């Protein structure tokens, strides 16, 4: 008989499952705490669970993490794991320690179908959505292995960002229970402000997330105009900037923070001129409460793009700051282990011929340079 992986249930889901087994709902809370708060995977370990329940679970259920293919530790303390998700696919998660927090960046898909030009995951194409269990397993493994390593019972991961491989809002149904497990007081107990979904702009799903599970939202903008954004983020042809910003405004009605973060990957001579910065000011200023996070492009083989020089990044930031828009430049972490944004490549058995598509439609740098 196939056993069910309990990492795939949020607490209401686990309660329903326990009821099916003829168990009281509160048993689910105990079980959930054992799994997520204590990192237990062996039912026999769960000493205060009724023996009858432990026996029932034994034959039917499991708590199954992902196999770790590799682990790399950067000189700055960043850790990158490569997890096997079967059939030749592997996904990455990155832990970024800072003085006042520990952030885990996790993946939502094996590959990505959006195909952004500057993203190595996009270049690899798409294989499949991760399940809720596979999304949660990245956090479960990272949190509990870090606690063991640091020899502590205290929480190590305080923030989760859905900024690894994949477009989380194109895997909505598996994403939401995973977010709920992160937020649940009996699970990881993270506050909504400390769980961030990053999206390239799947407008209808931004609206659904607002109703179902409003966590912090980051939107990958990368360009101030539709012609340029169409080239960098192909999804823009379906959901152009005006529609995207309207969805962001609606999101703010329920969001745990009173601003949206716009991410902007700085590509030399493509989207990084002062004129582009002024266009961005015209687009956003007094229109929407936001912060801008400039991400220096992290190059990877075959991208054909270059990172903006520091001087260009600074000049761009200056225009935004002068206009009163809160702007930060993201520090690159884990550079030496290819763990920086957009370098997460994992291993993807592409089913979309992404590579061929991209070669046929290179970014028109001449047209878009400003
Ligand atoms: N699919 C989601 C989340 C994953 S990508 C999204 O696009 O938002 C996470 C962030 O890394 C996004 O802001 C993305 O634009 C950025 N990124 C992708 N490739 C990059 C690269 N090569 N250099 C720097 N940032 C990159
Ligand atoms: Fe997908 Fe995000 Fe990469 Fe674009 S940047 S290809 S949406 S993972």
From TrEMBL:
The keyword rRNA processing applies. It comes from Pelomonas aquatica. GO terms for cellular component: cytoplasm. This is Dual-specificity RNA methyltransferase RlmN. GO terms for biological process: rRNA base methylation; tRNA methylation. It catalyses: adenosine(37) in tRNA + 2 reduced [2Fe-2S]-[ferredoxin] + 2 S-adenosyl-L-methionine = 2-methyladenosine(37) in tRNA + 5'-deoxyadenosine + L-methionine + 2 oxidized [2Fe-2S]-[ferredoxin] + S-adenosyl-L-homocysteine; adenosine(2503) in 23S rRNA + 2 reduced [2Fe-2S]-[ferredoxin] + 2 S-adenosyl-L-methionine = 2-methyladenosine(2503) in 23S rRNA + 5'-deoxyadenosine + L-methionine + 2 oxidized [2Fe-2S]-[ferredoxin] + S-adenosyl-L-homocysteine. InterPro entries: Aldolase_TIM, Methyltransferase_A, RlmN_N, RNA_MTrfase_RlmN, rRNA_lsu_MTrfase_RlmN/Cfr, rSAM, rSAM_sf. One of its GO terms (molecular function) is tRNA (adenine(37)-C2)-methyltransferase activity.
């Amino acid at each position: 008989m196939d056993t069910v992986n309990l990492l795939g249930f949020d607490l209401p889901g686990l309660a329903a499952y326990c009821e099916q087994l003829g168990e009281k709902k509160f048993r689910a809370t105990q079980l959930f705490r054992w799994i997520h708060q204590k990192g237990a995977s062996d039912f026999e370990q769960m000493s205060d669970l009724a023996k009858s329940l432990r026996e029932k679970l034994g034959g039917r259920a499991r708590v199954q993490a992902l196999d770790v293919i590799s682990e790399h530790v950067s000189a700055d303390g960043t850790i990158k794991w490569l997890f096997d998700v079967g059939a030749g696919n592997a996904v990455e998660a990155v832990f970024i320690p800072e003085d006042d927090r520990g952030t885990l960046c996790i993946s939502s898909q094996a590959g990505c179908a959006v195909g952004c030009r500057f993203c190595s995951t996009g270049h690899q194409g798409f294989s499949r959505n991760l399940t809720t269990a596979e999304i949660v397993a990245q956090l479960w493994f990272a949190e509990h292995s870090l606690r063991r390593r640091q020899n502590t019972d205290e929480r190590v991961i305080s923030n989760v960002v859905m900024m690894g491989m994949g477009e989380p809002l194109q895997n909505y149904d598996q994403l939401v229970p995973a977010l709920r497990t992160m937020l649940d007081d009996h699970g990881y107990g993270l506050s909504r402000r400390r769980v961030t979904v990053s999206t390239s702009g799947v407008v209808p799903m931004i609206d659904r997330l607002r109703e179902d599970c409003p966590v912090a939202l980051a939107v990958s903008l990368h360009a101030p105009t539709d012609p340029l954004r169409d080239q960098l983020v192909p999804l823009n042809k379906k959901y152009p900037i005006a529609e995207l910003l309207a969805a962001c405004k609606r999101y703010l009605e329920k969001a745990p923070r009173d601003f949206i973060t716009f991410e902007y990957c700085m590509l030399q001579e493509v989207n990084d001129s002062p004129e582009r910065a002024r266009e961005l000011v015209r687009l956003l200023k007094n229109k929407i409460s936001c912060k801008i996070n400039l991400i220096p492009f992290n190059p990877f083989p075959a991208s054909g793009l270059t990172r903006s020089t520091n001087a260009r990044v600074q000049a761009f930031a200056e225009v935004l700051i002068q206009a009163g828009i809160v702007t930060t430049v993201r520090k690159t972490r884990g550079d030496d282990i290819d763990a920086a944004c957009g370098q997460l490549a994992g291993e993807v058995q592409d089913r979309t011929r992404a590579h061929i598509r991209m070669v046929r439609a290179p970014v028109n740098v001449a047209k878009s340079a400003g």
